[in-house]
Design a protein that fits this description.
Pfam families: Acetyltransf_1 (PF00583). This is N-acetyltransferase GCN5. Keywords: Transferase. With about 190 residues, this protein is an alpha+beta fold. It has a 7-stranded mixed β-sheet with strand order 1-2-3-4-5-7-6. It has helices at about 10-20, 25-30, 35-40, 45-60, 85-90, 95-100, 125-140, 165-170, and strands at about 5-10, 65-70, 70-80, 110-115, 145, 175-180, 185-190. The chain starts with a strand and ends with a strand. It is about 30% helix and about 20% strand. The protein has one domain (about 5-190): 3-Layer(aba) Sandwich (Aminopeptidase).
Length: about 190
């Protein structure tokens, strides 16, 4: 495979090229964690897509990084200030009371999901996206980056199940496990 290049997503079309496909990503457009449960349920996919496009074009810092291979968008990782993700705040499987104490700190950013297009999986795209997310958060003023990966253990999970990443992916990038809110789940952090 040709070299994977990753940069903060500056064009909504690049994110849409990765996300607008059959499956969960094409129904979510990376809005699952950015909306409350009722607001998400009430929003059709085209509204979610427009919301993502508006955030990409209207923000000081992009809400994610995009991976390309020979100029074609093939991967996406969501990364933004943690207060932008209300679903995480309220999820007992993704946080703990101790971690909620500093919830409103805009210097703590979160990596909430990875999407890699079919045909490019198991080729290092997610491994390229995570360091780019770290650099994007650092360049945007974050002092800490947090993730919510799965620890699959012996069971085999589908790519849809792995959208949060794995503990091994985050550990390889230097993150430390700081909490285990539920079996098979972890909260990881990297001090920038």
């Amino acid at each position: 495979m040709a070299e994977v290049r990753v940069a903060p997503c500056a064009r909504a079309d690049d994110a849409v090229a990765v996300l607008d496909r059959p499956g969960d990503a094409g129904r979510c457009f990376c809005q699952w964690d950015r909306l409350t449960r009722p607001a998400y349920r009430e929003s059709p996919a085209d509204v979610l897509k427009d919301r993502l496009a508006t955030r990409i074009t209207g923000a000081d810092a992009s809400p994610g990084v995009v991976a390309t291979v020979e100029g074609e968008p093939v991967g996406w990782a969501s990364v933004a200030p943690r207060p932008e993700f209300p679903r995480i705040r309220n999820s007992p499987s993704m946080t703990t009371p101790e971690l909620k104490a500093d919830w409103d700190d805009p210097g703590i950013w979160s990596v909430t999901c990875f999407v890699v297009r079919t045909g490019y999986r198991r080729r290092g795209v997610a491994s390229a996206l995570l360091p780019a997310a770290v650099e994007h958060a650092r360049a945007s003023g974050a002092h800490t980056l947090e993730g919510y990966p799965l620890e699959p253990g012996p069971r085999r999970l589908s790519s849809a199940d792995l959208f949060r990443g794995t503990v091994s992916l985050f550990r390889a990038a230097g993150f430390d496990v700081v909490a285990r809110p539920r079996d098979g789940r972890a909260v990881v952090r990297l001090v920038l």
